[in-house]
Amino acid sequence: MHTAHRLLAAVTLTGAGALGLTGCLSTEPFPGQQGSRVLNDSATALRGASTFTMSGKASGQGQVNLSVSSAGECKGTIEARGGGTLDVVRTRDHTYLRGDETHILAQTKDLPKDQASRARKNMTGRWMRTENSDPSMKGLTNLCDRDGLLKEIYSIQGAEKGALTKTDGQEAVTINTPEGVFLVATKGEPFLLKVTTSGPNPLDLTFTAINKPVQVDVPADKDVYDPDAIG
After folding, report:
1. 30 phi-psi bin (left φ>0, alpha ψ -120 to 50, beta other)
2. Which end of the chain has fewer beta carbons closer than 10 Å to its terminal beta carbon, N or C?
């Protein structure tokens, strides 16, 4: 009888212990993985998508809304430094830019009246084409370069996992680094969802992975103008 009581007590205690352990299980995302591993995996996951969209504020460019493909193509809009907005189409070799009225006015405001009038006529509704290797395209080319945009993440030191949060309805874990704050999806693929940095080159960008290629329509020659001949 005493043995039976001891066995019953042991089973009861084991059950209570098991329930207690279950109640204390950690809800830490990516258990056992360091913050740097989670951050690197988030960049790798985003690179693996056929396309990702990028929206928000980028240093030196202002507001951006771009779709970037694994094939090196890109399209969308960026806020121009001098004012207005630029439509962007980038192929593997060329970048096409088309300014809105505000941008065109800002670009031609210092020209003599006759020159400004001709330039605005040539530019309105048309695209400027440049080589991607053109140094003046460096800032834009970097934004549209998937690998170049994400490769810096792999060298970030001191990444630590922080609190769980949500961004655009998606659960994410905060990764705190000396470079800034990164949000990584905890459900499904560990996609990088958001980057916020400060300092001389601040960023506040949101990323969304899309498993289909960017549809890039190259402007027709009749809709392209020579930037050296607009005056």
Report:
1. left
2. N
